[in-house]
Fold each of these.
Amino acid sequence: MHEMTKTDLGPVDRLPTVEESGKIVERKQYATMIEVNGARIYHEVRGSGPSVLFIAGATGDGGHFERVAELLSDEFTVVTYDRRGNSRSPRPDGWESTSTEEQSDDAAGLIEALGLAPAAVFGTSGGAIIGLDLAIRHPELVRGAILHDSAMFSVLPNPEEVTGAIQPVVEGGMQRGGPQGGMEAFLRFFVGEEAFENLDPGLRERMLGNGETFFGLDFAGIGSYQPDDATLTGVEVPVTVVAGAESPPFLIEVSRWLAARLNVELETLPGAHTPYFDRPEEMARALRPLLRKLSG
């Protein structure tokens, strides 16, 4: 059963269109809490038009995409959400482990419950792993997927080199401040010092509060996913694989591996691993034609 309560957040202002139209478009947004797949999921819906679901990676907070969602909401129905047990989506009772499949089933349940199918999906980092599984296992709900900087490190020749570089950074943060300190160290590593300091204070506080979920469940549960080549060549829906132009080389290598097995060209998004924080206008401008193509 899908249980929904809706809170109207009122009109969204400050939203000029990305195109050179000179117009300012008022768009409605609302927040809802809905129960899908045994979890209560907080999400926000903006705009109207073809549906797009954004899936976050580390920290699982839909607020990552707030500005990009606002910019695209003049043309698309944009849905962002906090993944189970993260931020405003409470931890389910007895929830002690997760998997990519569980996470993609959550996303599938959200698409179905909101009547969005078939939806375009944008997933980044760990969210790109979830988006890939969603396209593989729920193709009837997905009209296309855009996978950005997939964190599927298991496909690398030496994944321990990547985890080995991150581990001492996180361990130092954990020693200073527990899971929250480890989360801060991880974010500073991937987001960059300036972008981290410029985050909205409320969003940053929520993200840091997700350290226990990330290190205790998400990192291992999602990061171990690796479909075989036959599964990847059999994907039925259009998939676009994109890498950040300035992303770390190991993330670009994963994206290149994935694009090759899906038999698609690797495309790029502006910026590094988190353009939705520091280059949202450029990111929205780059995504718009890709989303239009999936909606055609």
Amino acid sequence: MLFFFIISWDCYSQTNAIDCNNVTYYEDTFYVSLNDNIITNTIFYNDSNTMIYPNHCLILDTSLISVSYVSGPINTNLDCHIFTFLAQNSSRDTLDFDFQVTFNSNNFANNTVVNGDLVLGDMNSTCSTSVSIVLQNSLTSVIANGNSQSKDLIRIANILGIESKEIKNQPLFYIYRDGTVEKRIIF
């Protein structure tokens, strides 16, 4: 007499891993100062797999500054935020987000670069994008310029160097009389 036993296992594998090439951030370099301490960016999500309750974090490699996620009037006081979902070809395939920067010290050189990673992931997968945060110390700028006047804007130019008006969702360069140039995108 022969007995056959059929055993089946439900295996959960990571078949729905997210392709990091399909997660795009609008910016990878941010300029912040004591007076302008919000990092604004946009995620473009073009992966065919939906992310359920994705976690979005900004992880820094310094103690000079810290960040907290800001959503409208709500500050999470954490460097991460959980969204409901991200899905391709839906109203949620593009997300705007803000992180508020807190300066733990104002004793740093002007244009100090802080490196970090924007991390987007859920329980199945994670994508990480390196970013740079340039810390501008207005006190250093004022002393170096020898005056306390605000910057004098000469012109605004588009990415081709052609003079432009302020246009939303377009990279623009603000050129000042003291030689500094700021790259801005207005959302």
Amino acid sequence: MEILNVNSNCPNCGAPIEIDQHAQASICKYCSSVVAVIPRTPSQIEESKTELPILRKVEPELKYQASHRLSAINTQGGHLWITKDEVVFKPHALNMGPLGKRYIRIQDVVGYKKGAFTHMSIFTKSGYKMDIVVWKKDEIINEIEKRRVNHFQSQGLPVPSLQFSDGVSSSSNIAGGTVSAEQLSSNSGCLGVIAAFVISAIAVLCSILC
């Protein structure tokens, strides 16, 4: 894996940060900030006279207690962040690592699937599927869709139809209100952790007994 060493370029603390050449985001190992690579065209790179990525700090508009399902028996705890431009799974400190499969740009979302109980998946045009365990699935889908529609409409572009919508309403008016990052409920957070633990335990038992 080729790494670009960006010296003193964390937009939050200014510390050195290492980024995979093709990564869209990373986590600063010094201040734990999520930083995203600002997309640039070849002409913009030429004008800036540097090919090193330009980074910005990611700040959540909405924040949900969640778990990221890496496999049937392996999940990571943390929060699902939704911003104007992206969907990010921010893991707890003990689960830090590359953000390659935890960061999705809003314009790359092509569908959703609501699974049983608290499971849901977010699909991207690259073929990646983010599997998460979270409460308020309808609300999350509604908030992502509002931002996806706005992204294309603000550029005068047609909004691409969803390629995957199993269990998802075709209407953009999915029920559910917004919850700011500051209003994250500690009760729903605890329930999310309990649900993720129970589901993971069931998956482990099934893998042993089956």
